[in-house]
Fold:
Amino acid sequence: EPEVTQTPSHQVTQMGQEVILRCVPISNHLYFYWYRQILGQKVEFLVSFYNNEISEKSEIFDDQFSVERPDGSNFTLKIRSTKLEDSAMYFCASSARLAGDEQYFGPGTRLTVT
Amino acid sequence: AQSVTQLDSQVPVFEEAPVELRCNYSSSVSVYLFWYVQYPNQGLQLLLKYLSGSTLVKGINGFEAEFNKSQTSFHLRKPSVHISDTAEYFCAVSRYSGYALNFGKGTSLLVTP
Structure:
């Protein structure tokens, strides 16, 4: 069964450093998403991406964040200058086509900012 | 904006007992509703979804949920739980025209023998 994969599973970085989280969505999916979950809190939407453009973003997704699909398979989330409060589990997801279609989630990357 | 409230943070239940996990939502527009499950150290997996039509929705692993528009609820039920159902359960909502999922805080279901 196809699945969304994410690398690395855990990343530790120092405050102020740039990090890139990587995701490989399901191959025939067209919509890609990033969510995050701070420990003990709910899963929060960050951004959705379609046709090489951001289609929707939350207020969390400020200028420190960017997304890219650098090739036909990877989808990345970059945080330019990490803060302590960026420590969270980051989930990538993808879906096939329409609003309401199932979003398939990856296992997540745990980001720890020290 | 849409929001989701999961009323119970933890639900302990004995094996083979029935369970209901509660979810209420608020929205000024029509929405889609979802239940996702997260097993330890894994990503979120869709259990079921309500888009339109019949208000009783059946999902995987014997779960079902009922959409109640007047009470703005989408409670998840299972008539007989197994140890393997122990997991975190998330209710989520999205706008018709948008794609972001807005999640509740989650309910931790603990099934014991």
User: Anything to note?
Assistant: The CA atoms of residues 36 and 46 of chain B lie 4 Å apart.
